[in-house]
Each structure stands twice: as C-alpha cells, then as structure tokens.
Amino acid sequence: MSTELSSHEFGGALQRFVLALADDELVLGHRDSEWTGHAPILEEDIAFSNIAQDEIGHALVWFTLYEQLAGVSPDSMGFERSWEKFTCCRFVSYPKGDFAYTVIRQYLFDVAEIVRLGSLLQSSNHALKEIAAKLSREESYHVLHTRSLVERLGDATEESHQRMQSALDVAFPQALGMFEALNDEEVLIRSGVFPGNRSLQDRWMSQVVPLLRSASLELPARVEGDGYTAACAADIGGRKGRHSDDLKQLVSAMQLVYQTAPDSKW
To answer: What is the value of pTM for the model shown?
Structure first.
C-alpha cells in the first residue's frame, strides 16, 4: 500500500471516529435537555440541564476538531445534515422515557465516556489527547452524579427497584451499540489512536456490571476470564447510518430554529 493511500485511509478513519463522538454527544445532550422543567425534583432538573449543556459543549469541541480535519463547520454538521447522515449510536437517540431510563442511560453513557477518554489520554494523536484531558474533568462529575443515583434508586424501594430494573432491561442491549465497530477502525488501532471498540467495551463492562449488581440490578452478562461479556445481542446500526424514526424526529426539532434562520451561530 502506498504512503499516499495509507495517509488517505487514516484521514478518513480519523474523521469518522471524531464525527461519531461528536454526534453521540450532540444527540444525547438534546435528549437530556428535554428534562428541563420536567424532572421529578428541582435538583435533578438543574443537574440534567447542566449535563445537557456539557454534552452539547463537548459535541462542539469534537465538531471543531472535525472542521480542522474535514473542512466542514460545526453549524453545518449540527444543523444542515439530514438525519440519515448522523453516525451516533442508536442508544442516544431513543426518547427520554421515564426518569429511571434516563438515569440508567446517562450512567452507562458516562462510564463509556470515561473509558473512551481515558484511552485517548494514551493516544498517538496529540489533538485527541488534549481534548480527552479537557473533557475528562467534566465527565468525571457526570459519572459521580449518575452513579450515585443508580446506587440510591436500585434498591431504595420496591417501586424504584422495579423501575430501574425495567429501564436496565431495555437500555443495556442498546448501550452495547456504543461500541459498534467503525469502518476502518483497524487503521486507528494499528496507528495507536485508540485501542478499538471491543477493548473499550470490555473495560466498560468491568466497571458497570459490578456497580449495577451491587445496586441489586441484574443484567445479561457472564464472567469470562478476568472480566465480563454480554449475554445479549447489541442494538447496532447507528454508526452505519441505520437509525430509527426517533432520530428523525429529534433532528427535525433540533434544526427547526436554524432552518428558520440559517445564518445564526451557536
């Protein structure tokens, strides 16, 4: 393979990697914002409004890097793309559901972010390392908050346990889609950019399974070697642009103001 082809292949793989990170953050941030004014208590209303703001801010960081790589502005990527062009995992696009589902989803996502950013601190790519160092601080606060909610609600009362268990039953297979392999992922692995989504999933499982079980919640995972492996099928397709109508509706709502005034900035 020629050096030119290798460089082109690497550049495309890196762009897809960064775009997936940006899309995950933007879409989940929008979903979290739907709790503003509707959370069960004021403290969580404020907390999830702040988390939503952070996630969308993180999306902007990734979109800014994507602009440097691909020459397309954050505004264009966020507000001018059709929903079929998004590469977020399907997990982040589903409706917010009840508060138990939101708590479970945010916790599972937050731990995945901590694992992913932790791996990027060792990346061969300097820009990714810098961003990971910056975002890790805020994500650590997110996971502290959502982990405490999972621990408290998992076995607080019979109703809270049932709601959290029902939410986990739905969310866990969806969450596995966060680790859907990207096109040309092996290029990034060989280049030392990140260790690969399979490795990240293993690290994620080693953190979430013990915590969830300590909160009296059961999930389809079995011990394998020194870690855990999922015993259910993953909800994948989002990285390839195969989304549900939930994302179509979300993107339509998210882009409404921009499409009305396309010269606005965010």
So the answer is: 0.94
